[in-house]
Specification:
This protein is flat. The chain contains six helices and no strands. By secondary structure, the chain is mainly α. The protein has one domain.
Length: about 120
């Protein structure tokens, strides 16, 4: 697998990890009763599959990031992380029906242009 592909997969997995975490925490909150202490939180985290997926995505993303970064310049790879912001915003709007206003879409467009410019270099 090429170093660039490893970096791109790492960025996508990191974004998906955030979506999994949000999903898991939302489900935990929906199941929670009035007892919101630390033991309840720990038990909820341990029993929530989406939180485990979050961890698995981050571990794999980190491994791919480390492998890809060995062969690529940091000045190339790191700005690509901003694509994760784009992906999380789009997925949040689609999956969680979060409101993304015009200014955020404009910022997402600017980030996307930057990623396109960097990835083409």
């Amino acid at each position: 697998m090429s170093a660039k592909l490893m970096i791109w997969i790492s960025v996508v997995l990191s974004a998906l990890a955030q979506i999994c975490l949000k999903h898991g925490l939302t489900r935990m909150q929906a199941r929670a009763n009035q007892n919101k202490g630390i033991p309840t939180l720990v038990l909820g985290v341990i029993s929530e599959v989406s939180v485990w997926l979050w961890g698995a995505c981050f571990v794999l993303a980190t491994v791919l990031w480390l492998l890809g970064l060995q062969k690529l310049e940091l000045s190339y790879a790191y700005p690509l992380v901003s694509f994760g912001y784009v992906l999380v915003s789009i997925l949040s709007a689609l999956l969680f029906h979060e409101r993304v206003d015009r200014n955020r879409w404009l910022a997402i467009a600017v980030l996307s242009i930057g990623v396109i410019l960097i990835s083409g270099s």
